[in-house]
Amino acid sequence: MTLSEFLASFAELTGDAITVGLRKSDEEEARIVWVNKAFSELFGYAYEEVEGQFVDITNDPDDRENFLNQVNPQIAAGHSQLHAETRCVRKDGSRFYASISMFVRPAAEGRYFVAIFRDMTALKTREAWAEAALKERDIALDSSRTTHDRLLTGWAVCG
Questions:
Q1: Helix residue spans in 44-89 (DSSP H)
Q2: What CATH number corresponds to the domain at position 26?
Q3: How many CB atoms sit inside 10 A of residue 158's CB?
């Protein structure tokens, strides 16, 4: 395999889910023109099921506004590389957190959007556990301070 062949197959070889969308100049939204195997595994769609669909088929409708608030200013500023974190939805309706790196490239008929998805569910779960542990620690500290203050007051009264 030559370097050129390897580079051409890279998107298929990677474990990251990748989709390529094309937004034609006369269309409001990009449509999917290609996905890799990792995309099909993560989202549960075969390529034939998503070809021609709008690229937001994977966006959780409940998180769409948040996602657009992250990416639209970057696109408007002319950035060709974008990043966002959002919730996505699989074909079976299950939801997960994803980190999305996007690249925008001009095309003769419009713009290509390449999105690379990484499942962040495990990370978000660990973050939630850490936040809960910190809250429990704060409650325990407040409780121990209150107990400490009561003991000192009691000793002062008795002493």
A1: 47-50, 64-76
A2: 3.30.450.20
A3: 6
Q: Widest CA span of the chain, in angstroms?
A: 88
Q: Total domain count for the chain?
A: 2
Amino acid at 121: T
Per residue in 93-131, pLDDT tens? Answer: 999 999 999 998 889 999 999 999 999 987 777 777 878
What's the rounded Cα separation, in Å, for the pair 133 and 51?
Answer: 44
Burial of 93 (0-12, 13-18, 19+ CB in 10 A): exposed
Mean pLDDT of 138-148: 76
Displacement of CA 89 from its chain's centroid (Å): 11
What is the C-alpha to C-alpha distance for residues 87 and 81, in angstroms, rounded to an integer? 20
For residue 101, the cross-strand partners are: 83, 116
Are residues 30 and 71 located together in one domain of the fold?
A: yes
d(CA 106, CA 134): 46
Q: Which helix (H) or strand (E) holds 24?
A: strand 17-24
Burial 11-21 (b: 16+ CB within 10 A, else e): beeeebbbbbb
Its pTM surpasses 0.70: yes
pLDDT of the residue at 42: 96
Mean pLDDT estimate for the chain: 87
